[in-house]
């Protein structure tokens, strides 16, 4: 039945079919894009509402949509939707999360001066619970949809005979349901944990207390055409950073969003009434009329990291923009002790997986090393405890043991560490700044000006001759750092090269690790804006620069050659993503604008951000005159080293076919190992089939044929990847193969291109090798090349 609520439904013109279809068209178009603003879609079979961990009896699916995390919040990147957590079915939205919102000061629109000018009260402040976000919505027939941010339904929709089962609510007593162990009941037969299924089980508990069913909740949400947004907090299921006792565990409702393209949500008072109607927990809410009262309250809580004498992650603040009724959200997260606790959790995972030598501590260095000294022997002596930690259990208990050992609270320790960082009497810090950029974006001009203003060391890649440029830059940086250690003097070093892709960044980090050099890493990111705008700007600047560059000289090389180099390098750009390695090594990311006449502005941005985060690096912010003088000197810089080499004809080291449509294939597979790789961020973003490698040319004549074919199409090969977009292939994938270390798709034939010098059909026989697409590896240390032998063994077995 549809439950009568103590408030009226909010209607919207955006429920109309035409408006919903327009959004679907934009999403489909975005899924065909490459680069910035690309949408990724995947179909998911929904959960059965029976209480068993199995797929919907009718096999119904919903489509999930997601965007790259680094695309959100960029003014120059237009996304088809800002929603994080968006699912559609039958050409309409069925699950709608919040629009992406940011922490205070994280972007321009969450700085206090912007908020004070553009956001009006009353302000609703809700406590930020520390769990995993879930979405609930309903279909017309009373089926409840339960989704995590980007997933729902069982991973393996095949054989259900071994799936763990929970008695359906209608057949189970309240006592039976309360005794279910959430950690074991929410895992499939492959051992993968499902957040959405755990949420479904918790919902049954809450609804049972109100004598209601999943169907009642689903029909009510369908009538509202809304999505309930909640946090699942249950340490028995999975610990996060802050503790929840058994009495506090459950579903904490904090949002009720309309299923509309434009973000619109019910006020907190209505959310609270909805939660009470269905027996859900609701987040605590406070109201403030003025922004001054709001700031006083947040600042006071920030001093202790607590609210009502309990550690919390922070608050979410809701207001309205300008004179409109548009909802505006921002976060106010407490840095400490929450960030310190989270840091301890991550270094412990790395300690267990890779050993102490591979743990790199950049924040709370002194106290975190003390923590590691304490927990290392405990975990080494108790493998079962270490395994439980990796499974999300015992995290808080281990931390509390350490705090009890020291006899201090987390907040006391973080404040003590902060004071130590400010004085620096016996502590030397070193910072390495790595730009992420393409040619002509202004990174060297900014770097030279920073060197002039603050005396920061500037190591420029174009001034280093020979091979192994990145390695030589790191070696010089480490030499400066060690000299600083001897003199008790902190150093700032800019390693000025493009670092435009993940591989280049990883190589630098690995070299620092090899040399046992552990500075703080800061990213100076020049990735803002549209790809075409950035490419045009770079071209204009390179043309204007002419011969005034070490390795790209327009008159000597010719504009055609320079254009090709620049296009290739712009295509290889990979933006920074702090959520994944290697970019997770960055302590701070400074966003620099990429447009004409903004280099001076970028110089000021970097100086201010460094001053705010590392006060010792910028003793005093420069005056406008000082900025202008440093900027002018940098513009007049002329290189004294020329790295222009004689043109040499490169031969391809390997030839591969880039493969599209892999994610659609993966979405239809039921592999627990694939689910693990997806959850751990170990699935590759791009895929290919290697047809020939130089190491095989003695045994495989096809390498010679392909090399000659490529030479005709690309007479001037560049180092790195050289795309040939006009040549198309078709591949056939008969099956997926995995072994717990690597996951791959077997390829038994490749058709095309139609060229008499090439074989029309390429298969294992013609190449004397086993073709495959590597999807991902379980750990960074596992090399993708293991896929080949695995596919070969599977074929012979």
From TrEMBL:
<dbReference type="GO" id="GO:2000622">
    <property type="term" value="P:regulation of nuclear-transcribed mRNA catabolic process, nonsense-mediated decay"/>
</dbReference>
<dbReference type="GO" id="GO:0004113">
    <property type="term" value="F:2',3'-cyclic-nucleotide 3'-phosphodiesterase activity"/>
</dbReference>
<dbReference type="Pfam" id="PF08302">
    <property type="entry name" value="tRNA_lig_CPD"/>
</dbReference>
<dbReference type="GO" id="GO:0005737">
    <property type="term" value="C:cytoplasm"/>
</dbReference>
<keyword id="KW-0418">Kinase</keyword>
<dbReference type="GO" id="GO:0005524">
    <property type="term" value="F:ATP binding"/>
</dbReference>
<comment type="similarity">
    <text>Belongs to the TRL1 family.</text>
</comment>
<feature type="domain" description="tRNA ligase kinase">
    <location>
        <begin position="432"/>
        <end position="594"/>
    </location>
</feature>
<feature type="domain" description="tRNA ligase phosphodiesterase">
    <location>
        <begin position="601"/>
        <end position="793"/>
    </location>
</feature>
<dbReference type="GO" id="GO:0004519">
    <property type="term" value="F:endonuclease activity"/>
</dbReference>
<keyword id="KW-0540">Nuclease</keyword>
<keyword id="KW-0436">Ligase</keyword>
<keyword id="KW-0511">Multifunctional enzyme</keyword>
<dbReference type="GO" id="GO:0005637">
    <property type="term" value="C:nuclear inner membrane"/>
</dbReference>
<feature type="region of interest" description="Disordered">
    <location>
        <begin position="153"/>
        <end position="194"/>
    </location>
</feature>
<dbReference type="Pfam" id="PF09511">
    <property type="entry name" value="RNA_lig_T4_1"/>
</dbReference>
<dbReference type="GO" id="GO:0003972">
    <property type="term" value="F:RNA ligase (ATP) activity"/>
</dbReference>
<dbReference type="InterPro" id="IPR019039">
    <property type="entry name" value="T4-Rnl1-like_N"/>
</dbReference>
<keyword id="KW-0547">Nucleotide-binding</keyword>
<dbReference type="GO" id="GO:0032056">
    <property type="term" value="P:positive regulation of translation in response to stress"/>
</dbReference>
<dbReference type="GO" id="GO:0006388">
    <property type="term" value="P:tRNA splicing, via endonucleolytic cleavage and ligation"/>
</dbReference>
<keyword id="KW-0255">Endonuclease</keyword>
<dbReference type="GO" id="GO:0036498">
    <property type="term" value="P:IRE1-mediated unfolded protein response"/>
</dbReference>
<keyword id="KW-0067">ATP-binding</keyword>
<protein>
    <recommendedName>
        <fullName>tRNA ligase</fullName>
        <ecNumber>6.5.1.3</ecNumber>
    </recommendedName>
</protein>
<feature type="domain" description="T4 RNA ligase 1-like N-terminal">
    <location>
        <begin position="83"/>
        <end position="339"/>
    </location>
</feature>
<dbReference type="GO" id="GO:0070966">
    <property type="term" value="P:nuclear-transcribed mRNA catabolic process, no-go decay"/>
</dbReference>
<feature type="active site" description="N6-AMP-lysine intermediate">
    <location>
        <position position="128"/>
    </location>
</feature>
<keyword id="KW-0378">Hydrolase</keyword>
<dbReference type="Pfam" id="PF08303">
    <property type="entry name" value="tRNA_lig_kinase"/>
</dbReference>
<dbReference type="GO" id="GO:0051730">
    <property type="term" value="F:GTP-dependent polyribonucleotide 5'-hydroxyl-kinase activity"/>
</dbReference>
<keyword id="KW-0819">tRNA processing</keyword>
<comment type="function">
    <text>One of the two proteins required for the splicing of precursor tRNA molecules containing introns. The ligation activity requires three enzymatic activities: phosphorylation of the 5' terminus of the 3' half-tRNA in the presence of ATP, opening of the 2'3'-cyclic phosphodiester bond of the 5' half-tRNA leaving a 2'-phosphomonoester and ligation of the two tRNA halves in an ATP-dependent reaction.</text>
</comment>
<feature type="compositionally biased region" description="Polar residues">
    <location>
        <begin position="171"/>
        <end position="185"/>
    </location>
</feature>
<dbReference type="GO" id="GO:0005634">
    <property type="term" value="C:nucleus"/>
</dbReference>
<dbReference type="InterPro" id="IPR027417">
    <property type="entry name" value="P-loop_NTPase"/>
</dbReference>
<dbReference type="InterPro" id="IPR015966">
    <property type="entry name" value="tRNA_lig_kin_fungi"/>
</dbReference>
<dbReference type="InterPro" id="IPR012387">
    <property type="entry name" value="Trl1_fun"/>
</dbReference>
<dbReference type="InterPro" id="IPR015965">
    <property type="entry name" value="tRNA_lig_PDEase"/>
</dbReference>
<keyword id="KW-0808">Transferase</keyword>
